[in-house]
Amino acid sequence: MEYAVEMRNIVQKFGEKEVLKGIDLKIHEGEIFGLLGPSGAGKTTLIKILTGQLKQTAGEVQFLGKNAGNGKKGLPDMGMMMDNFGLYERLTCYDNLKLFTRIYGVPGKKADEALRRVGLYGDRKQPVMKLSKGMRSRLLLARAVMNEPRILFLDEPSSGLDPVTAAEIHKLVCEERSRGATIFLTTHNMEEAHKLCSHVALLHEGMIVEYGQPEQVCRRYNHQNKLLIRLYGGEQVELSNNRTSADKVKGYLEQEMVETIHSTEPSLETVFMELTGRGFE
Ligand SMILES: Nc1ncnc2c1ncn2[C@@H]1O[C@H](COP(=O)(O)OP(=O)(O)O)[C@@H](O)[C@H]1O
Ligand SMILES: [Mg+2]
Question: Quick one: which ligand is closest to 46's CA?
């Protein structure tokens, strides 16, 4: 099986401080992968290493089965959306993208196509400094996808956005996956991760402390393993999820008393609070 990205024992030190302590991760081709973790965990640092903006202290990265060289050598076509990868404030939306069509070596008309896709075509003549936060995010995403990259890195793509704009970004991310791109994103938003990602990893204190499909991870932490039943009339019943509850559950069902029935596996948010001992921003 070939992976889009394969990391082996990635270590990053800044002076004495070891920010990444040996990261091993495999990202499947064509998936949306979510790297989760509290702020300061090292998520942006890992994206910088993968996109060739930072040379790791130790360890190696392979893209599509091939070793990445130093810096940008050997990197596949990639797109990225991150805060520090800025926009020119005085230039219009169109001019910002147009500049990058030259850098990417793609036809100029891709700028207009990308603006249409993110719903900014009507604002193409606006200078970036006049854009709202949501419009900026959409412009950054337009730039990231303009060259149809095989791998897309999105560093907190929807942080600070209203739910409608966040949903638009999610839709575009899913379109990119449908096109065949592999997406590597970081997020604080556990609902977003659960909804979008086929696999998530939790980075905590420089190490990956959990990895899996969101549903699978949640099931692993179902310590309570109970059934929560709400009966018509409002009574809540908590039963162990084993054969000792069978007669009771059968009875409720036979008498058509069950309004809702749930198992107690936690949400991703609860799992990650348990693992990190704190919440996300
Ligand atoms: N260039 C740098 N020099 C020194 N320390 C850095 C540098 N970049 C990041 N760090 C430190 O590394 C840690 C992880 O940062 P970062 O990767 O930005 O975390 P995250 O994106 O998960 O919030 C932080 O403690 C941060 O201060
Ligand atoms: Mg960050």
Answer: 1
